[in-house]
Fold:
Amino acid sequence: MCQACNERSAQHLTREGESRRGFLTAGAAALAAPLTIPALSGAAHAQDAPSALAESRVQSWAAFDTSGSFAPHTIPRRAAGPKDMVVEILYSSICHSDIHTYKGDWGMPQFPLVPGHEMVGRVTGVGSEVTKFREGDYAGVGTMVDSCGTCANCLADREQNCLNGTTFTYNSADKLSGGVTYGGYSRKIVVKEDFALRIPPGVDLAGFAPLLCAGITTFSPINHWDLRPGQRYGVIGMGGLGRLAVKLAAAKGAEVVVFTTSEDKLEDAKTFGAAEAYLWSDEDAMRRQRGSFDLMLSTVPVAYPMQPFLNLLKLDKTLVNVGALFPVEGAHGMMMGFGRQSLAGSMTGGIAETQAVIDFAAHHGIAASYEMIAPEQIGAACQKVVNKEARYRYVIDMTQA
Ligand SMILES: [Zn+2]
Ligand SMILES: [Zn+2]
Structure:
C-alpha cells in the first residue's frame, strides 16, 4: 500500500518483501522510481509523497553511558543533497574502536552514542549529481564520512589524514548538519557519494562489512610498506584485525606468521592462511624468529611491550602498530638502533585505498569470518570481544533494528 496515495499496485510494492521500517520511512514511491531518478515515480505523487531524500528520523541502537549496554534510540538523518546518497543499512559489524569509544578510552564520547563504522547496505536514494551509484546498488560506509577535499592530504587520497579535520562516521563533529555524527548501528545513513564504497554484487555482504575498517586498516600497511610475495610477514594478535590481516597478506603471497596469546587461535590462524602460528609465551619460538621478518603488524588493541617483536624484524624493517591507539610501551632506542628498525603507526586508509581492498577481496574470494547477531545482542557481543572470546567478527543484522 502506497503511504502517499493509499493505492495498491505493483508499482507501489516494495521489492523482495523488504517492507521494513527503513523502506517505509524512505517511502515506497522512491523505491518504485526508475534508476537514477531520485525521488518520485509519478506526477500524481509529486506534491505529497515522502521523498527518499528527505530529512528523516531513523531507528538506531545507542549507548547512553560507558556501561556497555545498548538500547533502541531514534536519530535524525539529514536530507540528502545533490551529491549525497541514502543507504539502507543491512549489516553493521562491531569494531573494537566502537568499544573504546563508548568506554571513554579516547575521551568521553557524546552520549547517546551510535557507533558503527563497518556497514554495508542498499542504496535507496541518490542526489541529482550522484554519478557512481544508482538505487538498488550495494554500498559500504567505513570510518569517515567527510573531509575538506582541498588540503594536500585529501588531494593525495589520504582523507583520513585531512589537515582540516576528518569527519569520522560517529562521535565526530558533524560539519554538515551540526551536532554529532551517528554510525552504522542504525537503519539508514545519508552520506556523500565520495565517501561511499562500491560493494560488488554477488559477494557475502555481511562478510564484507568488516572490510570497511578492519580490512582497510590491515591492507593499507601491506600496500604502503610494499609487502611482496614470499616475504615473511608477522601478525601480532588474532582478533578482528588480525584475522583479516592474515587472509589479505596470504592472498598477496606472503609467508604469514601469527603471534597470539590464545592457544585456541593457533589452529584458526592456519585455517585463515598463516604458515605458522606461535604463542607469545613460546620463548623458543621467539628466539628462533629473531631477525627474520620483512614486515610486522601489531593488531593488539591495548598497549604492551613491543621490543620483543621489534627484535624479530630484519635490518631496516618496520613494525606497524594499528591496534594500540595509546602511548606505546617498551620500545628500546638502543635495540632499535642496532637493527635500524622502525616502529610506525597507521590508521584506516583513504577512500580509494578502501575501494582497492574491497575489490581485492572480491577478486580473491576473501571475506571476514563472522557471526551474525541481532541488535539486542550488541552489548553481550562487545563484552565477548573485550574478554577475547570472539573467534569471528560480530555482524549485526540491522534489518532487525
Ligand atoms: Zn574500526
Ligand atoms: Zn583535507
User: Anything to note?
Assistant: Residues 1-47 have pLDDT under 50 and may be disordered. The pocket of zinc ion (ligand 1) is lined by residues 95, 97, 117, 143, 213 (CB under 6 Å). Residues 148 and 347 are 18 Å apart (CA to CA). The first strand starts at residue 56 and ends at 63.
